[in-house]
Amino acid sequence: MNVHSAVLEPIEPEDSDPNMVRVRALFISDLHLGTRGCQAEKILDFLRRYEADMIYLVGDIVDGWQLKTGWYWPQSHNDVVQKLLRKARKGSRMIYVPGNHDEFMRDFYGIHFGGIEVIDKTIHVTADGKRYLVIHGDLFDVVIRHARWLALLGNHAYDLAIALNTHFNRIRRLFGLPYWSLSRWIKLKVKNAVNFIGEFEQTLTAEGRRQHVDGVICGHIHHPVIRSFDGLRYVNCGDWVESCTAAVEHFDGQLEIVEWVAADSSPANSSGLSRTDPAQPVSPQVPVSISAASGPLS
User: Fold this and answer.
1) Phi-psi map region of 140: left, alpha, beta (phi>0 left; psi -120 to 50 alpha)
2) Which domain covers residue 262, as residue numbers?
3) Segment 68-83, tens digit of pLDDT
4) How many independent structural domains does the chain possess?
5) What is the pTM of this model?
6) Could you count the other beta carbons within 10 Å of the beta carbon of residue 6?
């Protein structure tokens, strides 16, 4: 399949909100709209505060797997879709790279929906001239690619973890404690999961070398990070079920992962705050910069 290349054009500000954060490009993945685990209110708050010339939807935006088994689509999920469409109408160039949960969109490559272009993968060129392959990443997940029934079984197990996590955090809120992700903790603590994450990262960076790019930006495994592998940059956007993260490119070409931790957060506080251990809970008061492209994150 052909790899498209994205060209940026400046846009007019969406509104005059003094708290609006302007970035050159925004990369969001794994919203999983249509599931109860989707944190749609945080997505909306983040989109209200961030404005970008280019927005990449890096797969699993709508969870078609879940919608096939049972319809769940509250107003907040519809509001997220409307907000994205409004940004496209206001001038943000928007590219949708489907994942495995929204694989039905793969039937529409090359088609525009309300200003959103659907393609299988693309090359993003940063302000400092670096070339990044943007791809969801599921095609490099051996389980999903070669044994779909195992992937579906894992999906049900993951849904169970999310359900347990929802009830667990309801109890934490009663005691005034911040959000904590059970499934995220499990992924980081279980040896096999850690091994899988490492293998996924290595596989994606190998594809980046094959494509002769400087880095790869992806989603899929819900593990936000920026790190380097022998000079090639690996960026994972994370998700909006567990980590509530997005990757952004600033106007100097620097890449950063920002975690949105509360609906009343101020993005002005996002710079200067870092967290290198995603397993630890964070304060629900400010968005957090997890990592920047100035160096690898181990």
Assistant:
1) alpha
2) 21-137+188-292
3) 889 999 999 999 999 9
4) 1
5) 0.80
6) 17
